[in-house]
Amino acid sequence: MNLQQRTSGILLHLTSLPGPHGIGDFGPGAYHFADWLQSCGQRVWQWLPTTPIGPGDSPYQSVSAFAGSPLMVALEPLVQARWLAPPVLPAGGFSDERVDFAHVVPWRLAQLRAAWAGFGLRASAQEQAAFDTWCEREAGWLDDYALFMTLETAHGGKAWWDWAPALARREPRALLEARQTHADEMGFWCFVQWCFDTQCSALRTYCHARGISIMGDLPIFIAHHSADCWSRPDLYTLDENFQPTVVAGVPPDDLGPLGQRWGNPLYRWDRMADEGFAWWAARVKRMLGHADAFRIDHFRGFAGYWEIPASSPTAQQGRWVKGPGKPLFDAIAAALGELPIVAEDLGFITPDVHTLRQALGYPGMKILQFAFGGDGDHEFLPHTYERNVVVYTGTHDNDTVRGWWDHAGAYQCQYAGTYLACGAHDVHWAMIRAALNSVAHIAIFPLQDVLGLPSEHRMNTPGTLGGSNWTWRFHWPMVGHEPGRVLGLMTAASGRGAFELLGVPTPKKAEPAHY
């Protein structure tokens, strides 16, 4: 994906797609959405992290930085392959507007287990060989992940540091016995990951054929209860009982007087550097197997991160610590080549963050919702942009544009209304138009903003757990014909899409005048 090309796209997580099985996945709904993107001139489809969900159903607190979410594995291809009988939905079916994780997760896993049994009975020699070859190729992360999930199941979902001591400490004899005892269960988790990769690859190929690139999302930190932390505890700031001594977060600011205590263990950057940042190179390689480019979350943490004592209940007590900086990305690039990275450089940004991003040449981010609280020099106002940025009306952590207007102060509404020449009824289109017409190379809009939806349709509210976070879904009657038509016209007029979408012949270039 060329991050320097003038283009635009939609932010929509896969779980928000329509479909009959309780949550969006790589099934027919994803292909229909790719067709819709093409029809309205969009060339980028941005996803949130596709790793397994964690506490609070968040994709940013995953049990693995390498694995794909089992919930995204579509069931239709498994039925077509004759490994799974057509699923019988629970009484009443599932909601097409919200993901009910408490009911969807066990039901989907039961279907995947049935498919694994069917694969064992009916897979052809060619299918079995393809699975075995894939497992060998991905063994570097897959073996530990499959064993981690197997042992988590065997221990009733307990955190890995509360497992049998020999397994928590990864004693070789205990691990060997576990692999032998639980071989079929490990096979199941490997099978699910093979299905994920196969289906993701097929969808990505379909998108490419329609001129659409996939932009992924890479969280900076990993979860404490994860295969990554269990398999290499030496790479994290843990004590002799495998508990973090310091954790990640952000300091107090205007959005929160207590700051945000995320609780992720922090990296031992010195040890990672001693290994040439090999873990990071492997992680990015895995990401680029699923996406053409990716947004790297909390980029400022690579310049300097907020270190909070693990004993502190809030983020108020902490200190800034220097991050790994440019040597990390130089090492990854040396291993993989040029990196198609978008740097999420939002929040409390100091000069060293700008210096790092500019030295690496990565585009940063601008959020239009943040532009109207100051004066005419605000860095998020479109007339202040440089080209090497990605502009958003909002991200998954923001309210929808319509919701933002409904809750904004009088000053913000007056400023935005004057700057954008809009009111409450069309502020979403005005922001989209402003982003498209800016000099930013890439403009991205959450689908909720294209549809002009209010606050109850937002994806996530930072600093909160549960509730409606991460549950939003759309269904096609919500879309209709008009939003795609208008978006296509605006995209074409701004030089980001096919001019034919305007419904007029492409004009001939004017001959130079001769005097």
Keywords:
globular; 11% strand; eight-stranded parallel beta sheet; single chain
Mean pLDDT: 95
- Total number of helical segments? 19
Shape: globular
What is the radius of gyration? 24 Å
Level of helix content? Answer: 25-40%
Q: Major sheet, described briefly?
A: 8 strands, parallel
β-strand amount: 5-15%
Strand-helix topology:
Layout: E1 7-11, H1 28-39, E2 44-46, H2 76-80, H3 101-122, H4 125-137, H5 139-154, H6 165-168, H7 172-181, H8 183-209, E3 213-218, H9 227-231, E4 246-250, E5 260-265, H10 269-274, H11 278-288, E6 293-296, H12 300-303, E7 304-309, E8 319-322, H13 326-336, E9 341-343, H14 351-360, E10 364-367, E11 389-392, H15 401-407, H16 410-420, H17 427-437, E12 442-446, H18 447-450, H19 482-493
Q: Would you give an account of this structure?
A:
The chain is built from 19 helices and twelve strands. It has an eight-stranded parallel β-sheet. Helix content is 39%, strand content 11%. It has helices at 28-39, 76-80, 101-122, 125-137, 139-154, 165-168, 172-181, 183-209, 227-231, 269-274, 278-288, 300-303, 326-336, 351-360, 401-407, 410-420, 427-437, 447-450, 482-493, and strands spanning 7-11, 44-46, 213-218, 246-250, 260-265, 293-296, 304-309, 319-322, 341-343, 364-367, 389-392, 442-446. The mean pLDDT is 95. 45% of the residues are buried. With 515 residues, it is of the alpha/beta class.
